[in-house]
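Final report, results section. Input specification for complex C-07:
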Amino acid sequence: MLWDLAFKHLWQRRLRSALTILGVAIILQTHLVINGFKYSYEQDVQRQLSAFTGKVLVRQDTGDTLGAADFSLTGSSLEEETAQDILALPGIDRQASSAVLMAPLARSLAPTIPVAILVVGIEPGHEAAYLSGFQADEGSTNLEAPTSAILGRSVAELLSPEGEEQPLAAGDNFELQGQTFQVVGVLETAPSLYNNSVIIPLEAAQEAFERPDTVSAVIVCAGQVEDVAQIQAAVEMGFPGLLAISAQQMAASVDAILVDVRNFSNLLTTTVAGVAVVIVTIVVIVAVMEQRKEIGTLRAIGARRWRIFGMVAGQALVLCLLGAVLALPIGMAFLKWGMQWEKFDLIFIYWARNLVWAGLVGILAALLPAWQAVRVDPLEALRYE
Amino acid sequence: MEPIIETKEVWKVYGMNGASVEAVCGIDLAVQQGEFVAIVGPSGSGKSSLLHLLGAMDHPTRGEVLFGNQPLHKMSDAQRTDLRAHQIGFIFQTFNLLPNLSALENVEIALRLGGAAKAERQARPLELLERVGLGPRARHLPRQLSGGERQRVAIARALANRPRLLLADEPTGNLDSKTGASLLELLRQINRQDRQTVVMVTHDFRAASHADRVLVLRDGRIRGETRLQGQDTHRALGQLLALEL
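Structure output:
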């Protein structure tokens, strides 16, 4: 191989090589970040889903396309009396079930992304219906007083008073819809739905959002797993206009959404890779034009075509692989300071894949210029004289 | 004795804007082992085209070129490439050194293309550069060398794989007369000491006077031939000028 020649040519044009590597790095870090977010989103949704295992979610049938995957339930509304009738059905673990009212305090950027702050009104003593085993890092998860509140990890930071660096903690007060609430507990780090939740007593939520005698849904926990189908049938028979969704149905709905998310992210990453291929191809074509005489000389003194191919491919590969290496710190910096993201273990997994991607980009980018290079006639090059 | 390289009624015709240009017209030539042959002629006489045919870099339109009795036109591109790597050394008018490689690396790369073993690739480049008087300049890049020094590196590179045939295309064309003369003396020395076969094309009769045999080429045809072996430069030049007239 003539890789040393490839490296020396790149070194000779240091500025151009550095700018190309930087360009490739910026492009590939986009690939890194998109994949990191996709993975993170999928994990979050799956964890959220597992919190609903063994439960039935009863909500209004709004014909919403998101259907069973809308965990925030903000588009659903039913009479509280109806909710109580449902909770009185046989086979239900009443302690672990509750009527809930959900209201967004800050909307999300897209339909499939959880709301930024979600207020959840829940019946005191039935907090487990919503919390599903997630514990408080500090304080408790009991909404004993009418103005008590449990905060998700992210909300505790978001609701801290301006100028305060510390997030809200147990015992602190905060304002919500003109009412003062006292924090009784801050949840451990959980899926984003919980991280973004302000959990208050149902009555307080109805008052704060002026929705008396109304709830969003009923979270029903079956006493026995085999009772789930029976409860679903009873709800659908006795309560027309309501949907009783099992965890399995939620999973199917979530999968459908995840397919769309994956397709979109694949489209983005393929586009990004295509841009990288075009950029590196242009740079290497220019390099081949500059090296035409050298390539001709090499052919004249006995370099076979595959060696020339390797030399040109080497240049494209070096540019892409160095770009992929540099994409890691750029991607991490972007995530850390731009998006306050901390899940860097995921980034390393995607970075390793990125290196493979970069290799493929390099090979694709090398094809056209390498083909041009191997066709250089030694005579044509010598006639440059 | 079997010639190293031989042409039989070889023609090279180029098509140019619908017209055809006959660069080489039915040349018969045989070069024996250890000979120093100069092909001399004015610009456009077809001498470079003939050299490219001898060097397996171009195909004849008609006729054939035999290298060690093997017809070049029957060889594949890879076989001709290998022949250039192992059996033929080239010296170009504009040196054609690789600009990003040092003198030493320029010689080493020829060894690499010729498939030389690592030990030889490490030892022989310096040995060759010392032979052409460039040992102390081995680590210099081509741009740090004078024209004469660059051409010496090119000679070392051409000799790297111990080729059977050394082809030189106007090797002194870009050098001043003094440097050119010392370079020709070096070529002559290599030819004599190693019995290295050399074919050189030049437009300069003074340069051609260093050869054993001189062919005068005009309009693609050999117009005259003379042997200069054993003659001093002054007499050789006189003989050549007579041939030209």
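The interface with chain A takes residues 52, 55, 57-58, 77-78, 81-82, 84-86, 90, 92-94, 96-101, 105, 109-110, 113-114, 157, 161 of chain B (CB under 8 Å). Strands of chain B lie at 5-16, 19-31, 36-40, 62-67, 70-71, 88-91, 165-169, 197-202, 213-218, 221-227. This concludes the modelling results for the funded period.
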